[in-house]
Give the backbone structure.
Amino acid sequence: MKLTYEGHSCFQIEADDHRIIIDPFLEGNPLAVLKPNKVEVEAVLVTHGHADHLGSAIDIAKKNDAPIIAPFELVNYCIERGANGHHMHIGGAFNFPFGRVKLTIAHHGSTTETGAVGNPCGFIVEMGGQTIYHAGDTGIFSDMSLIGELHDIDYALLPIGDNFTMGVADAIVAAKLLKPRVVIPMHYNTFEIIKQDPKEFKDGLEGSGIEVIILEGGESVEAP
Ligand code: NI
Ligand code: MN
């Protein structure tokens, strides 16, 4: 399993000749190296409707003939704009050809330029024998310990940018609730308002037994 950070909250996950992308904010994202027209994936997962997550999802889905996998109302929005979609909702899981996806809660909003598109979510993705938790945009919540109990998380992808989501201090506690093997910070430094030092996050988890990996846009980690 190979996990590549594409800046902000965007990740590509590859395993066994399958590739998916989550929250493809690649246009107008100063940290993104990847161009939307270069993306080759079999599914596009989107946590919520905000432009810094939905990004180029509809164009990528259409070009790749790949479904948008997201909460029900957001999938409808994408279908109305010509994409294919697979409707899901919080708590539900489904086995796709590339792996298993489950939607988790996220405490945040979900709107597009036309209005609300249901609830935001996070994702548990199981691919290539690894379990990845992408928290989406959210504040900390105590049910993260339940998510950690239900899933043996290898990689937790957590926002640390503050202002719109958890900041560094809360994300350190969130990591301890989730108990992943590795945590990777996201949703910071894209804009001035979410500027953070990821080193502070790393230092805060020193001695916790959780490894912190800080990735730059375009960098990858591979499961051992
Ligand atoms: Ni958002
Ligand atoms: Mn966001």
Remarks:
- Residues 2-218 form a domain with the Metallo-beta-lactamase; Chain A fold (CATH 3.60.15.10).
